[in-house]
Design brief:
Blueprint lengths: L10 H5 L5 E5 L4 H12 L3 E6 L2 H9 L6 E4 L5 H15 L4 E4 L14 H29 L3 E6 L13 H21 L4 E8 L5 H4 L2 H6 L5 H8 L8 H12 L10 E4 L7
Parallel strand pairs: 1-2, 1-4, 2-3, 4-5, 5-6, 6-7
Helix pairs in contact: 2-10, 4-5, 5-6
Keywords: Oxidoreductase
Protein name: SDR family NAD(P)-dependent oxidoreductase
Organism: Pseudonocardia eucalypti
């Protein structure tokens, strides 16, 4: 299925997601919630998926338009398949998947247990695959194409700090997953795009605060911001706006690549 030439459409029309249905994993807070807000603002009907169903429903209640919140554990195939089916049933279909759910604990490699390693890889890589597979099957059945966005990281390209071996490995794998999915699903009219942010000020970042403080970084955001060419770290909406571009028809010929949102971090 060839994607259309959209040269004759207006910018407003190309950016609009009216009539489309989106699932955002890990959508109850942080980058996921920011993405859900921007997609809803652009006209999509959004499903917020999260481990905590109550938080997902609370987040959905804050969005524009017709949004739903649902329980989703990306490490469980049955949960993923059930969530996608729920989206198709309650929203009438699925057009967009934002693979945002992820974990990023800081742990020295020599102290990392098998269970910790498997949790990071199982969430960030296997979870993304499970969601993409379920969404891809839905896209194939509908026959109308679709878009998958995988949240990668600057750590996908190079390790920038100690204690992130599991995380860097997982996010490096996201690049390969993005390219392979784009190659295999392109014939179905499905685009797959990665988005790789620098450090982002999120609730999840606060979970590692004791580790930062032990390393002498009482304010990790200020420490990162001081070295970045553009002068500040990212906030969730910086990433969400790029995700919105990626899923919109402005990016109709963008697939298999990863868009970096890093304030120049990778130039250092």
């Amino acid at each position: 299925m060839a994607v259309p030439d959209v040269s004759g459409r207006s910018l407003a029309d190309l950016l609009s997601l009216s009539g489309r249905r989106a699932l955002v994993t890990g959508g109850a807070k942080g980058i996921g919630l920011a993405c859900a807000r921007r997609l809803a603002e652009a006209g999509a009907r959004v499903a917020v998926g999260d481990l905590d169903k109550a938080e997902a429903q609370q987040a959905a209640a804050t969005l524009d338009g017709d949004a739903i919140g649902l329980a989703l554990d990306v490490r469980d195939t049955a949960s993923v398949d059930a969530a996608v089916e729920q989206v198709r049933t309650e929203l009438g279909g699925l057009d967009i998947l934002v693979n945002n759910a992820g974990v990023f604990p800081i742990m020295p490699v020599l102290e990392t247990t098998d269970e910790q390693w498997e949790k990071v890889l199982g969430t960030n890589v296997d979870g993304g695959f499970r969601c993409a597979r379920a969404a891809g099957r839905a896209f194939a059945e509908a026959g109308t194409g679709g878009v998958i966005v995988n949240l990668a990281s600057i750590q996908s390209f190079r390790a920038t700090a100690p204690g992130l071996t599991a995380y860097c490995t997982s996010k490096g794998a996201v690049l390969g997953l993005t390219q392979s999915l784009a190659l295999e699903l392109g014939a179905l009219g499905v685009r797959v795009v990665g988005v790789a942010p620098t450090v982002v000020d999120t609730p999840g970042l606060a979970l590692n605060k004791p580790v930062y403080e032990a390393a002498g970084l009482s304010d990790v955001i200020a420490a990162f911001s001081a070295q970045l060419p553009l002068g500040r770290a990212a906030v969730p909406d910086d990433v969400a706006r790029v995700v919105l571009f990626a899923v919109s028809d402005l990016a109709v010929l963008v697939s298999g690549t990863t868009l970096v949102v890093d304030a120049g971090h990778l130039t250092l």
